[in-house]
Every structure is written in C-alpha cells, then in structure tokens.
Design goal:
about 400 residues, 2 domains, rod-shaped, about 85% helix, mainly alpha, disordered C terminus, Helix Hairpins, 5 helices, coiled coil
Length: about 400
C-alpha cells in the first residue's frame, strides 16, 4: 500500500505540475493573444488615421490640381482667344495695308489720268484760244471784207465769197469751240471726279494710317496680354508641378506607411505564428502530460488492482486431496494440464469476475478483456503451479495447502 500511495502521489504531482505548466502556457498564449490584439488594434488605428489623413491630403491636392487645371484651361482659352484676336488684328492690318496699296495705286492712276486730262484741257484751251484767235481773225476779215465791199463794188463778189468762206470757217470754228467747251466740261467733271478721288484717297490714307496705328496699338496690347497670359500659364504650370510633387511625396509617404503597415502585419503574423506554435507546443505538452497522467493512473490502478487481486486470490485456502498412493503424485507425473484447467475454471474465476466486463466468467481472464489482468492471472497461475510443484516434489501421501 505504501508503494501505491507513492505512485499515486507521484502521479498526482506530475498531474499538478502538468496542469501548472499548462496553465502557464495558456497564460502566456493569452498574453501573446492580448499583445497581438493590442498591436493589431493600434495598427488598425494608425492605419485608419494615416489613411484618413492621406485621403484628406490627396483630396485637397486633387481639388487644388483641379482648380489649377481649370485656371490653366481658362488661361489657355484666354491665350487662344488673344492669339485669335492678334491673328485677326494682323489679318486686318494686312488687309488695310493691301487696301492702302490699292488706294495708292488708284491714286497714282487717278493722278496719271488727271495729268492726262489736264494736258487735254490745256490742249483744248490752246485750241479754244486758237479758235478764238481765228474767230477774231475771221471777224476782222469780215469787217475788212465789208469795208472792201464798200470801197469797191467790183470786189463785192470776191468779198462775198470771202465772207461766206469766213462765215463757214466761223461756223466750223464755233462748232469746234462748242465741242471744245463740251470736252472742257467733261474734263472739268473728270477733274472734279479726280479731285474727289484724290480727296477720297487722302481720306482713305488717313483712315489707313489711323487703322494701322489702332491695329498696331491693339496688336501691342494683345502681345502684352499674351505675355501676361504666358506668365500666368507658367505660374499655373509651376503650381501644378509643385502640387504634383506634393502629391508624389504624399503617395511616397503612403507607400512608406503601406510598407510599415506590411512589416507590422508581418510581425503580427509572426507573433500569431509564434503564438500558434506555442499553442501547438502547449497542446502537445498537454497531450504528453495527459498521456503520462493516464499512464500513471493506469499504472496506479494496475498496481492497486494487482494488490487487491493478490489479496483476494491469496485469502482463500485451497485444499487438494491426493490418492493414497504417493507414487501417483511424483513430480514427473504431475498432471499439469489438469491442474491448469482446475485453476482457470474453478479456483480463479470467482475472484477475477469482479474485474471483468461480464457478470459471469467461465475462465480466469480471457473473458475479462484486460491485458494487465491476463498478465496478472498468468503470473498467479505460474506462481500457484510453481508452489504446487515445490510442495509435491517430495511428498506422496500427505495433503498440501499451496499459497502463491
């Protein structure tokens, strides 16, 4: 019984130690789980805050970039409009220059025509003066002819003919004079038209100069506005480049945070794997401890049962009656098979039945189904058989009381 108590105490100590170690492992695992949960929570909070800040910053940068793009688009539109206006002004200037050249050419043509008309007018005036001189000569000739007619009757016919010829010449001269006056009127009309054309050319030249100055001023203003728009566009592009740089930096920071988050997740995964490994180790240790405990319990139960069984089996007294003649029980002729049959079927079953799985047993241990019980029964059989052999080794006619 002392050995059984020591075995039980050792088994209980092993069980308690295994339970304590299991509890410490469970506590360590729970601590690791808590640390992992805390790290994951902090990581999620940091990641959420960083993502929120990044989203706000990216949103602001995108709004600023959209505003800058809109401003750049407006500036580009104004630049295109100013360029179109400058192009239109240049076209207007070219058209005005072309009209000026045409007006100068027209004025030169009018001047040439005016000079020609003035030459014709001078020629007509000279012809008129000649005609007037001829008319004066004809008048003087007519007066002279009349005077001569008066002076001389003889020369009347001649004078009459000369007068008729003078009158015809005078009529022709008058006709030529009328034609010259008509041509003079035409020339004067042409001169008036030429003067009007010259005045129009001068006015057109003045208007052209004014338009040229205005177009030059508008072109200068357009160029100034174009330069200002270019400066604004360059400023907008610089702002856009700065915004894009800030956005790239923000994205780089986000990538860095993502890498840090990845490393933190890897560390968390490693911690989880370590915790899982510790849990698996704890489970294996627990299973090993449980197996040891079960083995210790089985050993304790086997020893206790063996002690009880030995007490139960040894307690009764077995009486064996032998024939009167001792020669029949000599050692070489000892009925071993019959002795074993008696032990298995008559002596041991009543004492082993309480450990079996059936309410009735026809043999000592086969129907019990327990390996340790089979081994114990076989040990008892061998002990009883050995004791009987020793008892009957030199005895022939007495009774024996064997005890294992």
């Amino acid at each position: 019984m002392t050995g059984t108590d020591s075995v039980r105490a050792a088994a209980r100590e092993d069980v308690d130690r295994a339970l304590r170690e299991h509890g410490s492992l469970e506590a360590e695992v729970e601590l690791l789980r808590a640390q992992l949960s805390d790290a994951q929570l902090r990581l999620k909070l940091r990641s959420g805050a960083a993502d929120m800040r990044m989203r706000e910053k990216v949103g602001k940068l995108e709004l600023e970039m959209a505003s800058l793009r809109a401003e750049l688009d407006g500036t580009t539109a104004e630049l295109n409009q100013s360029s179109a206006a400058a192009t239109a002004a240049l076209e207007a200037q070219r058209e005005a220059e072309r009209q000026r050249i045409e007006a100068v050419a027209d004025a030169a043509d009018v001047a040439r025509r005016l000079a020609s008309l003035e030459g014709q007018l001078r020629a007509e005036r000279e012809a008129r003066v000649t005609a007037e001189n001829l008319l004066a000569s004809a008048s003087s000739a007519s007066h002279e002819a009349e005077r001569e007619a008066k002076e001389s009757a003889q020369a009347a016919a001649e004078h009459l003919a000369r007068a008729t010829a003078g009158e015809d010449s005078l009529a022709a001269i008058r006709a030529r004079l009328s034609d010259a006056e008509a041509r003079n009127r035409e020339l004067e009309s042409s001169v008036a038209i030429a003067k009007e054309a010259s005045a129009n050319a001068a006015s057109l030249h003045s208007q052209e100069a004014t338009a040229h100055r205005a177009s030059k001023a508008s072109l200068l203003a357009a160029e100034n506005e174009l330069r200002a728009l270019k400066r604004r566009a360059e400023g907008a592009e610089a702002k856009l480049a700065a915004a894009e740089g800030a956005l790239r930096k923000a994205r780089g920071d986000a990538a860095t945070r993502d890498r840090e988050l990845g490393r933190a997740k890897e560390q968390a995964a490693e911690a989880e794997a370590r915790a899982e490994y510790l849990r698996a180790g704890a489970a294996r240790e627990r299973d090993s401890r449980a197996a040891l405990v079960e083995e210790a319990k089985a050993e304790v139960a086997r020893r206790a049962t063996g002690q009880v069984l030995r007490l139960v089996v040894v307690a009764p007294t077995v009486r064996v009656q032998v024939p009167p003649d001792g020669d029949a029980l000599e050692r070489p002729r000892l009925p071993v098979a019959k002795l074993r049959a008696v032990l298995r079927e008559e002596i041991l079953p009543p004492f082993v039945r309480i450990f079996g799985r059936q309410e009735t047993a026809t043999s000592a241990a086969v129907e019990a189904g327990e390996p340790w019980l089979n081994a114990l029964v076989e040990d008892l059989e061998r002990g009883i058989e050995a004791q009987l052999r020793e008892t009957f080794a030199g005895v022939a006619t007495t009774r024996a009381t064997p005890s294992p």
